[in-house]
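Reviewers of the previous submission asked for a worked example of the structure-prediction workflow described in the proposal, so we include one complete record here. The input consisted solely of the amino acid sequence. No template or homolog information was supplied to the procedure at any stage.
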Amino acid sequence: MLRLLVLLVTLFFVGCDSSTVTMPPPPAGPGSTTIRYEVVPSPTFGSAVADSVAYTDSDGQTISLSTTQLPWIQSVPFENGREQLVRVTATRTAPANEVGLTARILVGGVLVLETPFPGVNDTAETTNEALAAYLFEGIPPSGN
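From that input alone, the workflow returned the following structure tokens.
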């Protein structure tokens, strides 16, 4: 029986055309879900840089970065079965027409929150902060 199973599996893989086989992305690890943070320029009056970006790591600590080029992306694996508040913030002080930021959180590849903070058509100095916070309930979104 084992020989038949090995033969069938071998025939299946030999018959597959690798150009038509789509492999899913590797999982974050056993018992974990990847949370992806993104900070991007807003479509209107967007900024190419953030003065600061901060996000939650897998231990619940806040990691702070200064002067960050946009778009900025960081993926962090979080342990399943453990509830945790995760957040990403970005700030920019500049003329109002250069401060547009959008913060996003994706859980297991699924967009769960997007918060745009656009700039305005003005040259007055202003500070803009994009903030996205999400309660990861310790389970990946359905479908994962």
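The mean pLDDT is 80. We consider this example representative of the routine output the project will generate in years two and three.
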